[in-house]
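Thread: Newbie trying to understand structure tokens

Hi all, I'm a second-year student working on a class project, and my supervisor (Dr. K.) asked me to get a predicted structure for one chain before our next meeting. I've only ever worked with sequences, so writing a 3D structure as a token string is new to me. If someone could post the tokens and maybe explain what I'm looking at, I'd be very grateful. Here's the chain:
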Amino acid sequence: MAIVGSLIKGVIALKDALSFEPNHVEAQKKVLKELLKTASNTDFGKKYLFEFIAISDDIQKNFAQEVPYFDYHELHKEWWSRVIDGEENVTWPGNPDYFALSSGTTGKKSKRIPVTDDMIEAIRNAGIKQVEALSNFDLPAEFFEKEIMMLGSSTDLQEKNDHLEGEISGISASNIPFWFEGYYKPGRDIAKIDDWDKRVQRIAEKAKDWDIGALSGIPSWMELMLQKVIEYHNAKTIHDIWPNLQVYTSGGVAFSPYEKSFTNLLEHPITIIDTYLASEGFIAYQERPETDAMKLITDNGIYFEFVPFLPEYINQDGSLKQDAPSITLAEVETDQDYVLLISTVSGAWRYIIGDTIEFTDVARAEIRITGRTKFFLNVVGSQLSVNKMNAALREIEEKFDLEIPEFTLAATRINGEFHHHWYLGTETSVENTVLADALDEALKKANKNYKVARSKALKGVKVTTVPSSTFSEWSGAQKKKGGQVKMERVMSEEKFAEWEAFVSENISN
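---
Reply by user tm_fold:
Sure, no problem. This is what the structure looks like when written as tokens:
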């Protein structure tokens, strides 16, 4: 009998039973008030009158009226560049010891996002909430004695100007509690290896020494690691190496595009749990097995606002118009995409994180990530969001019995007329023209705006299939393998030309 596991499971279940579901709307008001009070004497707080907003009759309304929206570039230009230079009390009291590097899905130049001690504590608290939620998933006691493979970026943080820099997964892993180190794999030594391929090679070599019960990381990179381990040991599935693997905690992107290919690496189904950890904070986690939606963490140092994701509020480059209306958690509805704004204990204020979400259950504050603001393809009125693209590709997978874990597309011009050119990461004998017709029809059925665009300015659809590995190699060439790096789903014409040149060279070699 797993005595230790039974004790741990019992403690988690007891703590969960004694915990009370917060009133999410009231929790958010409290978080905003604390944020404003704490930052009232910062330069940012003084400029935007935080002291007075915090004691006003309607804090949320006045906060929205006084403080503009900020994307990273605007916040960095006016405020965070000073934080990076070592100034104190700029957007949050003091000066942070860490900066999260994030190139996200666009560009080679890394963003530097402050990570304060308050944020590290908030991330740790969110992680504990997620662990406590495991009591809802009917896992056996033995599971709580197994090790956890956390596949993130390197924990070998770089020192620069009296602070440390690295991706948020590396910063989080370097700050894990001492009591967790016995469960944590691949362990500090391997986690410090900066080169992704070398780190995965070491994981493959050591894999049989570990009794892994859970995995955690971004799906695309997790798949590549599992494939490497399986190949290294000449195994059929990952369960031949880790027979007690029962849980995968996905994060960063929607898991559905990877579900089919991921399942093929397993001998039997495992529990999939979604999380939402961004460079700017731990935003949400899946609390219960009845849904794949995630609960916003409303009482843990992040204040949320929501802008309806409508074409009239979005600039062509994916940025948000300043006159776009925002709403609070008390006003949201289901079946509506929203641009997510956050204000945090790291000194982000009305910050456009770049993701779009929808609510599946307002009372529980449960959401799904539906895409990225910059991946909204509307060059000729097609109004395609990533969730619409994913839904169409799942239909194509089903129709032709394919796996399409990766894709990208752009609106390109052929003889002066716009076409959508899709690159699909898949291996198939189905003709590209057949796939293009099927994809076109699926999108017409799912999206009336797309159907209208196809009858007017959008003249056609083109599909090119390439090996799925092409996408990870592109990410490696553009930025860095592993960690928080995600594939661009929609590209500009200029970036798409670079992609096509890379594909041509990569496949020809």
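A couple of things are worth pointing out once you decode it. The CA atoms of residues 191 and 376 lie 35 Å apart. The first strand starts at residue 98 and ends at 102. Feel free to ask follow-ups in this thread.
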